[in-house]
Amino acid sequence: MSNEKMILKINNIEVKYHEVILVIKGVSIEVPKGGIVTLLGANGAGKSTILKAISGLLRHEDGEVTDGSIEFMGRRIDKLGAEKIAKMGIVQVIEGRRVFEHLTVEENLKVGAHMKKYGRSVKDGLEMVYNYFPRLKEKRSEIAGFISGGEQQMTVVGRALMTSPEMILLDEPSMGLAPLLIHEIFNIITKLNQEENISILLVEQNAKLALNVAPYAYVMENGRIVMDDTAEKLRENPDIKDFYLGITDIGRRKSFRDVKHYKRRKRWLT
Amino acid sequence: MELFLMAITTGVMVGSIYALVALGWVLIYKCSGVLNLAMGEMTLIGAYVSLSFYSMGIPFLLALLFSLIIGLILGILTERIFLDKLIGKPVLTVIMVTVGLSFFFKGMVELIWGTDTRVFTPPVFSIEPIHIGPVIVGQAYLWSFVAAIILLIVFVCFFKYTRWGLAMQATADDEMAALSLGVSARFVYAASWAIAFMAAGVGGTLLGNINGLNISVGYLGLLVLPAVVLGGLNSIPGAIVGGIAIGILQNLCGTYLDKYFLGGVKEVAPFVFMVIFLLFKPHGLWGWERIERV
Predict the structure, then answer these.
(1) Residue B27's CATH number
(2) Chain B residues touching residue A62 (CB < 8 angstroms)
(3) Number of domains forming the structure of chain B
(4) Could you say which of A98, A112, A149 has the minimum Cβ distance to residue B176?
(5) Residues in chain B within 8 Å Cβ distance of A87
(6) Tell me: the pLDDT tens digits for B124-168?
(7) pTM over 0.90
(8) Is residue B290 part of a domain?
(9) Rounded CA gap, B44 and B113, in Å?
(10) Does residue B291 form part of some domain?
């Protein structure tokens, strides 16, 4: 991948919480302009931390990028505050469907347009969001705390869309949703990427789904990138198949595989 | 019956002033989680500022406007100087700082304006009472009520219809999510203190018109507590209803119970009520418990 086309470049960063707890060690990630890249990994691998490091929310949790650099459209952003980074066009969709519970759906969306002057652009924004998520239009005046989980996820993505972002950092949009809904949301994400030309960095536990959507993927374990490749190659990779996609070759003896699995994974991590 | 109606009417009118101050208190609590014990002294400062302007011969409304502007500035300064550095520190630390602030403010008031009771001269509102049906109310009460209601409406509209108001509500709901959308938390904190200071100033000015102005007006700050406990610590409508309810309660107790005791029931009643109320509804009438979807 050539350098000019990268919208986001993370160079060898290190992240510490409370100045002592080292959670990310030497991670480098690149996202091409208008592309989708996914970041896979188990719980606690540090995927969400990477997203927070990019969006600047890390500082809010007393974390800090202590080494390396993060560049967005050629500008270093790892020392900027969350507010400035958001203004530059990066928006993070925090994991866990964090809607503003006591506001209505439409008010939630309007907060997303907070950085713009009220008027025409907000109306256009709302129209665009309702276009992608027709269900939100039906629920527009309902209190966001009481709508269904899928609708909350749509609200959160729509809210991010209202900021007219260059790039969306999506943290586990599939969490706790029914398969059909997940499918719907991922379809919309792909559409957003293609039609609005928004670059997307997607963090997912559901590797199968993520590899379908994103052409390129990074795999994280214990705060390190252990592998990165195109989705096609990763899908064929036996380790990925085994650890993330849950596909094993049929016919082998189970006990043998289990032992091997453990050894292989151990070797992989060190 | 007339006595009862009088007590209720006066209660509602004084209560609307409490409601205004309570709204300011709730706003700070909602947006930044700070339990502000300096509210009474903020009321004092606002009241003395408008009194000073008024004594200079500036028309009352203009004096009130000036005190609003000064309240705005003082609010932002207070937040920037004293509370900005405390974001993320333990709750107790922050509360102690507000206690310190309350002493500081009180000291400043005594230093600048002295401790004697001052009155607005010439009186802003005519002392001629007004008859509404069978009820007689002082003009000071009536106009205070009108002013408080107008200001309450302005504030509520601000939260509901402006993007800054929405941003403040959003921050109160989920600070992290608000930050991710580019809402400036520092702005929200400063704005909540500024609005609280303005509301307190107007509340103090109105009370000063009713009773005369001295340090004791600052005890209003304590009265805010039963009001917000009743309404729920983080509910704006709750603060308004709570303030008015406390006003009514106070006047009813003052009217009917004072003769059985040595006096002062008026001052104690809200707190007795608060303690009893807390036993049964610790979240207040409209306080948030987190929304659980069923």
Answers:
(1) 1.10.3470
(2) 88
(3) 1
(4) A98
(5) 182
(6) 888 888 887 788 888 888 988 998 899 889 988 998 888 889 999
(7) no
(8) no
(9) 11
(10) no
